[in-house]
Amino acid sequence: MPKIREPRYHKVAQEIAQDIVDNHFLVGQKLHARSTLAATYGVSAETARKAVSVLADLAIVKPVHGSGVEVLSRGKAQDFLSQASASNNIQATNREIKEILKRQKEDLTSLNQLLGLLADQTQQVRQQSPMAPHEFIPDDDSQKLHQSIGTLNIWQNTGATVVAILHQDELVLSPGPYAVIEPGDTVYFVGPDKSVLAMQQFFAN
């Protein structure tokens, strides 16, 4: 059964944002070096780096070369946390998916219906039109593998929005731009009908 999880760096980004909202970190304050942040939140330096990148993309913090990370906005930190809270209904759907997989391994009809619901909820959070998800498995020899969604610019190149990645036995939902597509992964995406062919052509060598 796939294990549904949220990327660890995204959770750490929320923890840092919460500390900003709670005034543990003040606007204009310089946070510790990423290695110290990693120790503070009990994660690797790479996870801390990705978490800071998420907050920097949202203009909540700003990395300052040679002097740590500067807090820019408490309001945007609150907006980020509110957006995360709005995704709770997606997590409820995840739990229901796990129950269906437990009861009915052979019948994927209900699962597909819930994946469609999940895509609708995800698209609403992103303020886009809901569409049923498509499923795609890139060829193992595709030159686009081992790269992140953001690096590949999948939406810009195909019109498809990736809503989930099934990696081995783990289903990563709303993976974000830093998620890497590996050989054997199943990519779930939403988009217009032409995006199906566009995805196939994009990952073809």
Automatic annotation (TrEMBL):
List, for all copies, the residue spans of the domain called HTH gntR-type. Answer: 6-74
InterPro entries xref list: Bact_HTH_transcr_reg (IPR050679), RCK_C (IPR006037), RCK_C_sf (IPR036721), Tscrpt_reg_HTH_GntR (IPR000524), WH-like_DNA-bd_sf (IPR036388), WH_DNA-bd_sf (IPR036390)
Could you tell me what this protein is called? Answer: GntR family (MngR)
Q: Does the keyword Transcription apply?
A: yes
Is the Acyltransferase keyword given for this protein? no
Q: Which organism is it from?
A: Eupransor demetentiae
Domain (RCK C-terminal) ranges? 120-205
Q: Which PROSITE patterns match?
A: HTH_GNTR, RCK_C
Which Pfam families does this chain map to? GntR (PF00392), TrkA_C (PF02080)
Name residues in a coiled coil. Answer: 83-114
What lineage is on file? Bacteria, Bacillati, Bacillota, Bacilli, Lactobacillales
Q: Which UniProt keywords apply?
A: Coiled coil, DNA-binding, Transcription, Transcription regulation
